[in-house]
From TrEMBL:
Keyword line: Toxin-antitoxin system
Name of the molecule in the record: Plasmid stabilization system
Annotated organism of origin: Rhodopseudomonas palustris (strain HaA2)
Keyword Transmembrane: no
Family to which the UniProt record says this protein belongs: Belongs to the RelE toxin family.
Transmembrane spans: none
Keyword Transferase included in the entry's annotation: no
Alphabetized InterPro entries for the sequence: RelE/ParE_toxin, RelE/ParE_toxin_dom_sf, TA_system_RelE-like_toxin
Length: 92
């Protein structure tokens, strides 16, 4: 199964990790590893996330409060967004 990030999702992940890295490089490494581990699990179990209103699914990168929004098809998983759970959703 293929994995693809939208440009927006890649930018959000970069922004999250840069923000944390400015305060704690070690913390940023932990968050990055956990987000990538959760995405790796999605490749094995694409239906693991909870369905959302717009036909996407979301999963939490527990124990960190980051939500990963994605769509899964038979061929690929597309990451559409990553955000802190305390932030309001972006208007589209």
């Amino acid at each position: 199964m293929k994995l693809r990030f939208t440009i927006r999702a890649a930018a959000e992940l970069d922004e999250i990790l840069s923000y944390i890295d400015d305060r704690s490089p070690q913390g940023a490494l932990h968050v990055k590893k956990r987000i990538h581990a959760v995405i790796g699990l999605l490749l094995q179990h694409p239906g693991a996330g909870r369905p959302t209103v717009r036909g996407m699914r979301r999963v939490v990168a527990y124990p960190y409060p980051y939500l990963i929004f994605y769509r899964a098809t038979e061929q690929e998983i597309v990451i559409h967004g990553i955000r802190h759970s305390a932030r309001k959703p972006a208007r589209q």
